[in-house]
Write a structure and sequence with these properties.
This protein is an all-alpha fold. The chain is built from seven helices and no strands.
């Protein structure tokens, strides 16, 4: 799973809790990938800054830019959900050649 998909997933999870009027318990945040990043990003003045991401999470500049792009939906969980791959379509987003050239050990 790419970091962009993980961020979209985390935004959707945080959005579900927000919609239910609940906070994610602190002891659970550390177990969920990228949720801490999303919660931090929601508290920041907009727009998010690459330098702030780098400082907060000790990222390279390239990774900070990737995360910044992935965090574009931080205030729109529905848009984040739309970026998630469809779990019912195991080859969604893969090129046709990759679908046809599955090898031993490929997970479906």
């Amino acid at each position: 799973m790419t970091s962009a998909v993980m961020v979209s997933w985390a935004i959707a999870v945080v959005g579900e809790f927000d919609a239910a009027g609940r906070r994610i318990p602190e002891n659970l945040v550390q177990l969920l990938p990228m949720v801490d990043v999303v919660l931090w990003a929601k508290e920041q003045p907009q727009p998010l800054q690459v330098d702030a991401l780098q400082a907060q999470f000790d990222l390279s500049r390239a990774t900070a830019y990737r995360w910044l792009t992935a965090l574009q939906d931080v205030h729109d969980p529905a848009a984040a959900r739309s970026r998630l791959p469809d779990a019912r379509a195991p080859f969604a987003g893969r090129p046709k050649e990759a679908q046809l050239q599955r090898g031993v050990g490929d997970r479906v």
